[in-house]
Amino acid sequence: MQALGVDVGGTGIKAAPVDLATGKRTEKRKRILTPRPSTPEAVYEVIAQLVEHFDWHGPIGCALPSVVRGGVVHTAANIDDSWIGHDAAAELRERLARPVHVLNDADAAGIAENEFGAARDLDGVVILLTLGTGIGSAVFTDGVLVPNTELGHLEFHGASAERYAAARVVDGDVTQAEWALRLNEFLQHLERVVPPDAFILGGGISKNFDAYADVLETRATVVPARFRNRAGIIGAALATRGIR
Ligand code: BGC
Q1: Which of 29, 75, 123, 165 has the smallest number of Cβ neighbours within 10 A?
Q2: In the prediction, which pLDDT does 171 show?
Q3: Quick count: other Cβ atoms within 10 Å of Cβ 46?
Q4: What pTM was computed for the model?
């Protein structure tokens, strides 16, 4: 059984079919730039193109950078505000005439890591953070997801924590070494408010994990994600199990 995983990000919309038994992509992923403005209408158009590209007729899982409850989008931090209040699942189901499940992108990444990646053998409370344009979070307790946590929006240094410690700050005046110290501060803050047994660090920057791991001083174990930027696609596809 396969599903198409779609991951909508602030800069790109990526998709690939995924084998649900192995968590492996069965075709090369396709990426299309996120339209500007990234309104629901414009993004649906891109998703339709991706479905056509893969000539896809099966179930579709779609990850958004938003709190999503019952298919309805409740927040829009790095996509257009007009997403708020939108029933994305119902809309996509109708347009594409296929079963569709919509969920938060970090939760999707967490599902992939939990089943086939870095969290597979971790018990207790595990927090996955996706470090990219923003900071997404997925919290698991003994493998069970607590959906829609937004730890990247905790107030930290007077603003959303993601403004201070997301990987995107490295592009500006902040070096990777400086950013790593910021990340360490944020992890220590999380340990004070929601102490986990382990942190998993995801997003593209997790490939450099060895370069900054030494400065991370937490009581919890810290490990890099296995799937990095692929986790959203894989987890979105996995999340379609059980939908009709
Ligand atoms: C959003 C989260 C999302 C994260 C990563 C944050 O700004 O609020 O929902 O998971 O970015 O995309």
Answers
A1: 123
A2: 83
A3: 19
A4: 0.97
